[in-house]
Amino acid sequence: VFDDLTSLSFLSLQKNMITAIDEKVFGAVFQHLKVLNMASNPFDCTCDSIAWFVSWLISNKTYISNLNNYQCNTPPKYHSNSIAQFDTSICDNAPFKLVFILCTTTVSLLIFIALLVHFEGWRIKFMYTVAVNRVLGIKEIDRQQQQFVFDAYIIHAKKDMKWVFKKFIKLEKKPRVIRFCLEERDFEAGIPKFEAIINSIQKSRKIIFIVTKHLLNDPWCKRFKVYHAIQQAIEQSRDSIILIFRHDIPDYKLKNALCLRRAMFKSRCILEWPVQKERIGAFREQLISALQSNSRII
What we know:
Blueprint: E1 10-12, H1 23-30, E2 35-37, E3 43-44, H2 47-59, E4 63-64, E5 72-74, H3 94-135, E6 150-155, H4 161-173, E7 180-181, H5 183-186, H6 193-202, E8 204-211, H7 213-216, H8 219-235, E9 241-245, H9 251-258, E10 270-272, H10 280-291
Parallel strand pairs: 1-2, 2-4, 3-5, 6-7, 6-8, 8-9, 9-10
GO cellular component, one term: plasma membrane
Family: Belongs to the Toll-like receptor family.
Domain TIR: 148-291
């Protein structure tokens, strides 16, 4: 109504049954008023209706006609009181907004942290351990200069031993020789098995897990081999593990059994054993690429 009346100097709206005075409606036209008469209107004395108007009355220099007749009609507790007596301090909701913002931010942050820990807790723990090792001076060994005896130590379930030996011996014999550490062939005689496993892992550039249903249920692998392999990777800040899936294992089963997730590893270090024999050559090239990949984490 008043959008084009910004230069208006006199305004009379008495006895017009006006209950509320909104800044959006009257703000522009009130800026240049010299005389205002809005007496004898049934004002609703609430924060939403007249708080802005009362503040304006106090701060402006406009002449207000019949100010004594600017009275509250509602609510009942303010009936017949002058609107100039309305306490606008109760309308200041800044503290409530601040509390609301703080509460909302806190709740959102807690939800975010909970989701982060649930889905990425393993990654946080892993990187934290690596960082602590760096701070304490446990630095990564220069693996490029160190001469390894084996390209990879193979961790597999006892029930998969014959299959692993048969398949991986064949992979070694093709051009661009690969040297795997196989327990039944390469462990030194007369050395306890615990010590032999640790020594073999340290002598190997990478560690290959042959992931099968048998591996997930093999207590010896779960309690010692997998644990030690992961622990060494963490302590030495090395991304040295390669997963080769012989069976289709869901990620949640992998996590529950071995505390591993596919997301912990680079994509080129997660391989699927080919079903078709003609795909073995391509698989071997992928494996060579994974074996030659950089082991540095950070």
